[in-house]
Write a structure and sequence with these properties.
17 helices, DNA-binding
DNA sequence: ATGTTC
């Protein structure tokens, strides 16, 4: 019996096993590419340049095992969103396009002990107060408007800076990936222009798909893990999705231009200029890594300030201290990062720059980098769906280290461009429908943003999560549904 | 994603 194949207009994928497809190595590819998806998801993934892009990434020097496209993959700048590339940290390279423009775009979930019953009737007051108190939209205006010295501290110290300056508590550090601080950060590697863009954006949501959402837990699929995560049905939680704003964007741009200029030889070997990479050990690889780590710290501070401000808003709306409402950080996960990690490859321990772009770290139970509180069950993984579909909490699955360098998907993944979305939807209509049909209260700076983020522009998050769960890379723990949503 | 076309 011949192997099952999937023909995607010029690219043929061979099925390795259920939900695992391979683009075999050929020509100048340095490894195969793998796509983790159902056929239903492949039907959507093949519609843009995702497959060509994941194939292109296998040309990067040092690519280890295979390049991986997650079930929510879609076209990105050079490297697909939903892509994982582990590049040898000694003989490989590091690629800003494989991290993404929005460095450490990510999500954090905060628990409360409120129930949906207690919140009902307060939705409009809450959404208005959140919208008034959490800066959003394009341009400047943050919770903190910083001077140069403060920006440098934020860049080098991450969430430690926030906690020391009254924007959180010690416990917040423990429930953040890397405890909210990348040691290798060096603020001097971030340009003045990037700092200028970021200094008045510390504590701001931004625009696009970024949001703050109050949600209710509708399902707990795994009681044991749910208990470890402090989640139960009807509980209110808050999900914050944002990144490093103009600072991260400028940093990505700065280094792409430098790398294009200084590493033309490597660039010429790559099928797409947008994959520009700095060879491991070069000055620029070192500088970019330090700058990226600083931008990662900036994004964590951004989410920390927004979370702490949200506590204060809840205090006013529900008239009691946030501690009494047990508003603790469940976890903060990065969606756009690279990190030097040690992984077992062919029985050998190897140092790799694991690039996760639109992909989530998903370390399994027992991994030393999983916070103590969750070590026995695995790292929390938070997957936002669209604002009408709901969201998932997963836990790092036991197969993630073998299959995906400890990673899984990051969201639903777009189905259409922002331009197309605005042709098909009208923000006001979307807003009205969500409120009338699903009692979801949305407030945004711009109607265009609501249209761009309409539920219909996203893939089916249930299907993405089903594949992650079936592969054992990220297992279903709980599902949440929106109550209030604010965005840019 | 993004001082939304360096």
């Amino acid at each position: 019996m011949s192997k099952s194949t999937y023909d995607a207009d010029g690219i043929t994928l061979e099925q390795v096993r259920e939900y695992v497809w391979e683009i075999p190595q050929e020509g100048d590819m340095r490894a195969p590419a793998r796509v983790l998806a159902s056929e239903a998801l492949l039907d959507e993934i093949k519609e843009d340049k995702t497959l060509e892009q994941i194939k292109n990434t296998t040309h990067l020097p040092g690519i280890t095992n295979y390049a991986i496209c997650m079930p929510d993959g879609h076209q990105g700048y050079g490297f697909p969103v939903g892509g994982v590339g582990a590049l040898d940290a000694e003989n490989g390279c590091i690629s800003p396009g494989a991290v993404g423009y929005d460095i450490n775009c990510g999500v954090r979930m905060m628990r409360t002990n409120l129930t949906y019953d207690e919140l009902q009737g307060h939705e409009e007051e809450l959404v208005d107060s959140l919208f008034a108190n959490v800066p959003s939209g394009l341009g400047g205006g943050g919770i903190v408007e910083a001077g140069v010295d403060t920006v440098d501290e934020v860049l080098e110290r991450g969430v430690e800076w926030a906690v020391e300056n009254g924007h959180g508590v010690e416990g917040d550090l423990l429930h953040c990936e890397d405890e909210g601080h990348r040691e290798e950060a060096d603020a001097s590697k971030i340009s003045q222009k990037a700092k200028d863009r970021g200094k008045n954006q510390i504590g701001s949501l931004g625009s696009g798909n970024h949001f703050l959402e109050v949600q209710r837990v509708t399902d707990v699929f795994d009681e044991k893990v749910g208990e470890a995560y402090g989640l139960e049905e009807d509980q209110i939680v808050v999900l914050i999705h944002c990144g490093s704003r103009g600072l991260g964007h400028q940093t990505c741009n700065d280094y792409l231009r430098k790398i294009e200029q200084q590493h033309q030889g490597l660039l010429n070997q790559l099928p797409d200029k947008e994959l520009a990479a700095a060879p491991a050990g070069s000055q620029l690889a070192d500088d970019y890594y330090k700058a990226m780590n600083a931008a990662i710290n900036f994004a964590w501070v951004n989410r920390q300030l927004i979370m702490h401000r949200t506590r204060q808003v809840f205090e006013r709306v529900f008239d009691r201290p946030w501690e009494e409402m047990e508003m603790d950080l469940l976890y903060d996960v990065a969606h756009n990062i690279a990190k030097k990690e040690t992984h077992e490859v062919d029985g050998e321990q190897r140092e790799l720059f694991v690039h996760r772009k639109g992909a989530t770290r998903a370390f399994p139970a027992g991994h030393p980098e999983v916070p103590k509180a969750y070590r026995d069950v695995g790292q929390p993984v938070i997957i936002p769906g669209s604002m009408g579909a709901g969201n998932y909490v997963l836990r790092g699955g036991e197969n993630s280290m073998d299959l995906t360098f400890g990673s899984t998907a990051h969201g639903a993944g777009r189905l259409m461009s922002r331009t197309q979305a605005k042709d098909e939807f009208w923000g006001g209509d979307v807003q009205q429908q969500l409120e009338e049909q699903d009692q979801i209260y949305v407030k945004a700076q711009s109607g265009a943003t609501v249209a761009e983020e309409a539920p219909g522009v996203y893939k089916d998050v249930d299907e993405v999560v089903r594949v992650s769960d079936a592969l054992g890379i990220g297992d279903k723990v709980a599902r949440t549904f929106p109550v209030c949503n604010i965005k840019g």
